[in-house]
Each structure stands twice: as structure tokens, then as C-alpha cells.
UniProtKB/TrEMBL annotation:
Entry similarity comment: Belongs to the aldo/keto reductase family.
Active site: 75
Protein name, as recorded: Aldo-keto reductase family 4 member C10-like
Keyword NAD: no
GO molecular function: oxidoreductase activity
Source species of the chain: Thrips palmi (Melon thrips)
Keywords: NADP, Oxidoreductase, Signal
Keyword flag Disulfide bond: no
Annotated binding of substrate, by residue: 137
Transmembrane segments: none
Signal sequence segment: 1-19
Chain ranges of the NADP-dependent oxidoreductase domain: 41-320
Residue numbers marked as site, Lowers pKa of active site Tyr: 104
Length: 353
């Protein structure tokens, strides 16, 4: 049974109420339906591929108490993460059972036979015997040959995607001990429900874009009803994704300078990012903010010594823009909008983003 993340976060608040920076044991967690503990604050590593930058970020994160590290095959940084983890483990600075490492099956590996192949590749690069969670990164697929060194051909769509066959292969990896928990990313309710109804092993986690302007409350309620934890990517609005503006002409939201957020941050003597992360965590959702700045990395996990009151929460809840607040529609990935498993059909008539 999944423990309420709100309870876990409340316990963490008490643990760091004296103002001391959080230790790994102070960070809140949620017990997944697979029985695994998922720390509610993790380090996102998307768009960080520079060796020195990522090594410094991981060192800063682990020193600050992070034990949840999120990566993916398509991020092309698993080998760098593995190098740092190996050093920390070999020096006895952390135990393997204290870590929670997530990686993902790539969009160009969406066939049952690809699952063991790509998971084994990830384990080799991460220098681990198992990952704590393995996710299907996207519900749609592109052909293997459409991927070339970080780029995906515009016409690379593979229409043969079979979620149930892929999920069965994922379950086999869990049963073999190479993944402690399984989940999906960017799936919609219908796609998740299909897996639930046809497999004895339900997804333990859904990872989706979720932030102040795109709060995903109906999806959270659906997952809560089905005992599935939710993890938010881009929880502070992905301010580093300037390429999105160049690609689509869509303006990135400046959530860190939103007036209500700044006022609440001042009230609690916290940063705007800390308020945004705290707001999401109080909704029972885990967060994986990406940063390579050691100071911001430390700040992003230092959210367990305060709580937002009812007025704060109501103010922030009211800023949800729903579908209009979504930043990533993935239409740029291999013609994904023409795929039968494209998850956001309501976006099909909107401009590419």
C-alpha cells in the first residue's frame, strides 16, 4: 500500500525544524505500490552532458542529501552518472541501498526485444546491477534507425507500438531483479488504464510535466485512485529550455519572478524555487528539479523546514493554466503527433511546441 507522501513530508519537516540542512534520512519519501521508497526530491539530469558540469552537480547533490537521481538513455549522460556513483560507492560515502536511480526506455527502443537490450546498456553505463525504477519514456515510438547521436528524423514514426507487449518485457526485467520498480512517463489516463487492466503488475510511478501553470490535478487524482505515485519533471518551469522558444516561438513562463510566488517566498524567507517545489510536494507529488548550480541544488532540497498554509496553497492553485500551461508537447520528436499513441490529442490542433 502506498504511504501518503504528505505524511512522509510532514515527518521530514519535523526532522529539520532546527534549521540544519537536510540529511538524506530527513528527505520525505513515498512508498511505491512495489514496496520501494521513492524520495520526493530528486536531481533531474536532462540537458546536462558536460563531464565536469555533471560531476560537480552530482557531488553537490549527494553531499546535500539527494539520493534520488533521474536520468534516461536519451539524455546521453548515464556513463557520467555511473562514474560518480562508482566513486561514492567505492569510497563508502553512500550505500547502494540508500540510492534511488531511475532511468528510461528510449522512444527508439519501443519494442519488447529492446527492453532487455537497453536496460542492460543503461546498467553497464551506470555501473549498477539494478536500477530502482525503469520507466517507459514516451508512449509513442520512432524507428531505431531514425535516431542518430541525439537527433531523431522528422519522419521516423514507428506505428507498431504495443504497450502491453512492452510492459510484459518490463515486468520480466523486474522479476529478474534488474529493476526494483516499473513506471511510465508522459502517458495519459487511457494508456495507464490499459496496462492496469491487462497486467498483474501495475505501474508504480507516472512521470509527467507538472508545474505551477500546468498542475495536472485530474491526473494526480486518477493516479492516487489507482495507487500510482506521480513525479513532476520541469517543476519550476524548465527555465533552462531556451531552445523551446526558438523551436516554437512559445514564450517560456518566468515562474521564479511570478508576483504571487515572490510574495509567498518573502513571507517564508525562502526562494521562489523553494516555494514552487514545496507547493508540488505538498500535493503529494515527487519533484526532480534539474540544476547544475551547486547553490541551487542545495536550495532545491531545503524545503522540509517550512509548510505553505491554506492561503498560500489556494493562491498558487489558482494560477493553474491547465492545457494552456503545458510546455512540452513532443511534436518535434519523429512526427509523434501522427502516432496512434500520441498522448495529448487535445493539443493536435495547437501550434508545434
Amino acid at each position: 500500500m502506498m504511504m501518503s507522501v504528505r505524511l512522509c513530508v510532514a515527518l521530514a519537516v519535523l526532522a529539520v525544524a532546527n534549521g540544519v540542512p537536510p540529511k538524506a534520512s530527513d528527505v520525505g519519501w513515498v512508498v511505491l505500490n512495489s514496496g520501494v521508497n521513492l524520495p520526493v526530491v530528486g536531481l533531474g539530469t536532462w540537458q546536462v552532458t558536460d563531464d565536469r558540469e555533471l560531476e560537480q552537480a552530482l557531488d553537490a547533490a549527494l553531499e546535500a542529501g539527494y539520493r534520488h537521481i533521474d536520468t534516461a538513455t536519451i539524455y546521453r549522460n548515464e556513463h557520467l552518472i555511473g562514474k560518480v556513483l562508482k566513486r561514492w560507492l567505492s569510497e563508502g560515502k553512500v550505500k547502494r541501498e540508500e540510492l534511488f536511480i531511475t532511468t528510461k526506455l528510449p522512444v527508439y527502443g519501443m519494442r519488447p526485444a529492446d527492453v532487455p537490450y537497453f536496460l542492460n546498456e543503461s546498467l553497464t553505463k551506470l555501473q549498477l546491477d539494478y536500477v530502482d525504477m525503469y520507466l517507459i519514456h514516451m508512449p509513442f515510438a520512432v524507428k531505431r534507425e531514425a535516431y542518430n547521436n541525439g537527433r531523431i528524423d522528422a519522419n521516423g514514426t514507428d506505428l507498431t507500438t504495443d504497450h502491453l507487449a512492452i510492459w510484459k518485457a518490463m515486468v520480466a526485467e523486474k522479476e529478474a531483479g534488474r529493476a526494483k520498480a516499473l513506471g511510465v512517463s508522459n502517458f495519459n489516463e487511457t494508456q495507464i488504464e490499459r496496462i492496469i487492466k491487462n497486467s498483474p503488475v501495475p505501474p508504480a510511478n507516472l512521470q509527467v510535466e507538472l508545474h505551477l501553470y500546468h498542475q495536472q490535478k485530474p491526473l494526480i487524482r486518477f493516479c492516487r485512485k489507482n495507487n500510482i505515485a506521480v513525479t513532476a519533471y520541469s517543476p519550476i518551469g524548465s527555465p533552462g529550455s531556451k531552445w523551446l522558444t526558438l523551436l516554437s516561438g512559445k514564450e517560456l513562463p518566468d515562474l521564479l519572478n511570478q508576483p504571487d510566488v515572490k510574495a509567498i517566498a518573502q513571507k517564508h524567507n525562502k526562494t521562489p524555487a523553494q516555494v514552487l517545489l514545496r507547493h508540488t510536494v505538498q500535493w503529494g507529488v515527487a519533484v526532480i528539479p534539474k540544476s547544475s548550480n551547486p547553490k541551487r541544488i542545495r536550495e532545491n532540497i531545503d524545503i522540509f523546514d517550512f509548510s505553505l498554509d491554506g492561503k498560500d496553497v489556494a493562491t498558487l492553485d489558482a494560477l493553474d493554466k491547465g492545457l494552456d500551461g503545458q510546455l512540452f508537447d513532443m511534436k518535434h520528436i519523429g512526427g509523434s503527433e501522427s502516432h496512434p499513441e500520441y498522448p495529448w490529442t487535445a493539443l493536435l490542433d495547437k501550434p508545434v511546441a
